[in-house]
Amino acid sequence: MNWLYDSVEPRVMDEDMLKLAVGEQGPRDEAGQLARQEGILFKDVLSLRLDFQNILRIDNLWQFENLRKLQLDNNIIEKIEGLERLVHLVWLDLSFNNIEAIEGLDTLVNLEDLSLFNNRISKIDSLDALIKLQVLSLGNNEISHMMNIIYLRRFKDLRTLSLSGNPIAEEEDYKMFICAYLPDLVYLDFRRIDDHMKELAEIKHQYGIDELKQRENLIQAQLDDERAQREELEEHKAAFVEHLNGSFLFDSMYAEDVEGNKLAHLPGVSELLQAYKDKFVIICLNIFEYGLKQQEKRKVELDTFNECVQEAIQENREQGKRRIAKFEETHLLSLNAIRDESEVTNLEMKIAEHSKDITELFNMLMTLEMQLVEQLEETINMFERNIVDLVALFIENVQSLMAQCRDLENHHHEKLLEISINTLEKILKGELDEDLPYDVRALFVDKDTIVNAVGTSHDLHLLKIDNREDELVTRTNSWCSHLVDAIHKDEIMRNRRRVKEIHQYVDHVQNELDNLECSEIID
Amino acid sequence: MEVLKEKVEEEEEAEREEAAVRAERGEKVVRPMEVQREEAPMTQEMLRDLEKKLSDIEMAIPEKLSTFTKDTIDTSKLPLSYQSNTLKEEHLLQVADSFSRQYSHLCPDRVPLFLHPLNECEVPKFVSTTIRPTLMPYPELYNWDSCAQFVSDFLSMVPLPDPLKPVVQEEEKVPPKKYAIKPPRDLTSRFQQEQETKKLEEIKAEEERQLREEEERLLDVEKAKTDPLHGLRVHSWVLVLSGKREVPESFFIDPFTARSYSTQDDHFLGIESLWNHKNYWVNMQDCWNCCKDLVFDLGDPVRWEYLLLGTEKSHLSLTEEEEDGLNDDDDVENLGKEDEDKSFDMPPSWVEQIEISPEAFETRCPNGKKVIQYKRAKLEKWAPYLNSNGLVCRLTTYEDLECTKTLEIKEWFQNREDMLELKHIDKSTGLNVDYFKPGHPQALRVHSYKSMQPETDRIMEFYDRARVDSLVKREETSKTMTEYYRGRSDFLSYRHVSFGDRVKKLSLNSAESNPRPIVKITERFARNPEQPADEDVAERVFLISEERVQLRYHCRDDHITASKREFLRRSEVDHKGNKIVMTPDMCISFEVEPMEHTKKLLYQYEAMMKLKNEEKLSRHQAWESELEVLEILKLREEEEEEHRLTISIYDTKRNEKSKEYREAMERVMHEEHLRQVEAQLDYLAPFLAQLPPSEKMTRWQAMRVKDECLSDFKQRLIDKANLIQARFEKETQELQKKQQWYQENQVTLTVEDEDLYLSYCSQAMFRIRILEQRLNRHKELAPLKYLALEEKLYKDPRLVEFMKVFV
């Protein structure tokens, strides 16, 4: 069949072609007249048909941002491409083309109906993003492996599937297999699946399905676990105390500490180390719990603040709306009255009166807004003070806890040093009973070496602790300042918007009045 | 245990109430006499007045005193205890007399005691013996309040509290929050405010004064007839004493109104005496402060002078006071033996047990109908199903005291098929309001109207959940129709239609096909959360005569102004003669946030076309609503005319269908029974009777009996066959004869004779055929019947032991 297209010159999807199609498929009759007058923007087009155009390559479609339905059937397209921007697409028809692989559909999350009938596809994949898929047409392709069906299990909304004309459709078990593995399917190859068939299939393939389900459940559970963990970590991060609910910090202190690890082999050091670790972890846990508590407190504070501000804004807004509604009533009446008025003096008087009304409305709305701004400013300042205090308190307490860590480290250092020197003396005297590993023994050459080694380890540990503390403090502070900034900015934006809105409305009303006047004068 | 106790208490309460009924009954008959004895020159009129005052709430005794008056009771049919006194009663009466003498000697200025009035049979009976505690089978009588209600219905009437009273909900006050904004600064002059409030207060005070004056004036008018007998009137009521059965404090029950009153109530001016079925007490306490200071400790002989000593185990010191005025506080278990274990005991009550049939209980009022006249109001009550239109209660209120000018009428209905519950007619405004229970075919809830003519003022409210279109309310005036909706999927919440004057049509069409022209349709929509506010229409107004459509959109969450758009639909022709499709000035819009695509003519044109269709739909809707109103009105009229009543399937008495069914069932049962009796016919009886009696049957005898029975049966079968055969032959012979006769006389026969002959032939043939059939059938069945009997005999319990051997 393809020879027919081959004999024709492939065409390029250019501006003219698209314009023509849009023009042809756009509104008809009177609306069409208007459309021609004004021209149609590509981004306003919702549906586009480009069939039998000998298109070889999909191109130039990026402007059709709001396209819902796209028909590209009966062309000679070989590769799915250029559709990335059409994120609103619901309906895509690519049947009767020369496509060999499914690809380039990763952004089309809204796609519900996909037709790839009569192509050269041999494998179903790369459809993961199409979570809303309901109808999939893959007939007359080259799909030969039954396992492709299992890939389709992930589409929970898939109801209609056509696969006839594929090598797999020849297989004797084809229907049963699909019915069993896709139990939610309603139509297969343009026919409704009857319940009897479903039951039979289920019984036949029960074993396989159970196994598959088991596996799927396992994977799902794993994913859930991971997500839960991620969420927990996020929560801890928000409290700035992540990885403090255990020995992470302690372990990290020893992770890069070569000397420290070596020294652990000394007699008595391992017990010392264990005691040190226990104490250290307890302090870390204290920090962690305190952090979570403080986070909760900050959250409550912020929620209360937001709620109150929202309430205030809501109330102010209601007042404004009431004013406007009241004004609109009189506005319409007086406009009508002005329109009907014939006497010039009366007319002028009425116009003056009405413009006074408008000014009054404007003043009133602006007063309301200014009032709100003042009120909010005060509240925001109060909140700012409180949140800064809270954060400062948090940092202070964490710092004191960190100081405890440092004390522990110092203490440990002294002890270690003592043991090391003792050991050195013993070695020098040759009294040492135990066998030390060679690289440990290498440290005990003279006093300086050993002191240096212990000192290095100590410094490294302190550095780790300092780093962790710095990180916590800086992050906390930056969160706080960001929050306050955002609140201020939001308030300013809100104020700007409202003022703009008021101006716009009042201008509009004034314009209406002016237009009337103009027409009156002309009359 | 707790539950049981409570129940006992209720039962006992019920008894008390019943006792009260009896007491009232006994007392009522004699009261006029009694009163006359005390205050001689009293007319019936004054009596009524007195009764009225006594019953505390303005209420008059109905014209007939009560159905229990003497003339309705045939005294001769009453039991002996009504007509005479036993020895014990006589003795008691003597005791009472002496008590009364002593009393009047000691307290000469007090009213003689009410001790032994005459009963229906003109026999003096001591008051306590008129009370007989009785247990009734109706659960309603187990609680004092519903019981008192029933008693009051039996005796007199009380209006029910308004069932339509709205429930007021208090708004929850939210506690102030931390970041709540401060209220805006108050810059108004305090002095001015004060002046203002002062002025307002003055005005208010003036108004109040006027109001008070007016009220006083009205009160004066009403009080013009002050009661000359204030404080002298006598009344009986029920006192429930505290202590037992979780009664927290003593209270009074007025038997006429079924209301309970605190003992502190101002209406009760004093107590002369109390009695229950066991004793009689005279109040020795001062009643200068009404009943407020009375102590109801009946064991205290200083405060309460008893008539019979020691019949009660009341104690002075006990905090639990056990005595009642008209009540007893007996436990259920010692109901019967109450008289045995007392020293001088009250003789048993002479009255019979009260029996209330279920019908009487349902009917409540005598004859199922009752009228109570109140001040400026009249209440009429009927038993359910008494009126064919289901009317059960009617309250008429009047403007004046003479009850001539009706103010409003309220009618309550029950068991109506159209679910009408209450009809409220306001005579002053002419407004009728009908209230319906859920289940009306048009889901009507309330219908208020002045006339049943269409296109007049009316309000219909609906059960919106029962309606497909979720209509809540439809208000109509002669020029407008307003509809309110709730919870529609298209978010429509309000539609207002203004009509113009009907255009006179010259054609012959009737008025129905000439609907009023629609001038304006206003529709309001609730917010559709799925659409952005700028595209979600809040209100649209179709000015149909001006060909103008106004749209107002919803307000965005953070805005105070809303977008507006106005379409002018003018089909004009430009100077070249081409039709103008759309021009910018045909759509005037104000947008809060100007958008690009709405500026386009195409967009506006499409929007306008859509609106055009929607206008058509809305007009159609309005037209349909008008039709529906007509339909409902028609239906209502039909319903009013038919007023069919529904009957519960559990109502065995009235439900015709179930009655029929039941009767049919009974018939079937009866037939079944007959058949069974037949089946139990004893074949063997006549043969067994031939045997010598009281001797055990031998096997030989058994065999004989069996054989005889069988042979007898066989004989009967043969006889029957012979009988049929004989008839058959006879019939055939006759026919042959007749045929012969016909053949001989064929020539001379008249037409009538021939007809006669022919009909005879056909009848004879029919008979022969039937006989033949019967014979055949008999031949077929006879052996079967024989075998069946044989089988039966083999299994007969009397013969079975002898038969076993052979089997």
UniProtKB/TrEMBL annotation, chain B:
User: Any keyword Cytoplasm?
Assistant: yes
Residue segments, region Disordered:
1-25, 319-345
Q: Report biased composition (Basic and acidic residues) as residue ranges.
A: 334-344
Xref: InterPro entries: CEPT76/DRC7_peptidase-like_dom, DRC7/lobo, DRC7_C, MORN_DRC7
Q: Name one GO biological process term.
A: flagellated sperm motility
Dynein regulatory complex subunit 7 C-terminal domain: which residues? Answer: 695-802
Question: Per its UniProt entry, which superkingdom is the organism in?
Answer: Eukaryota
Tell me the ranges covered by the Dynein regulatory complex subunit 7 MORN domain, including all copies.
366-648
Biased composition regions of type Acidic residues, renumbered to the chain: 319-333
Q: Please give the name of this protein.
A: Dynein regulatory complex subunit 7
Q: Which organism is it from?
A: Panthera leo (Lion)
Whichever gene encodes this chain, its name is DRC7
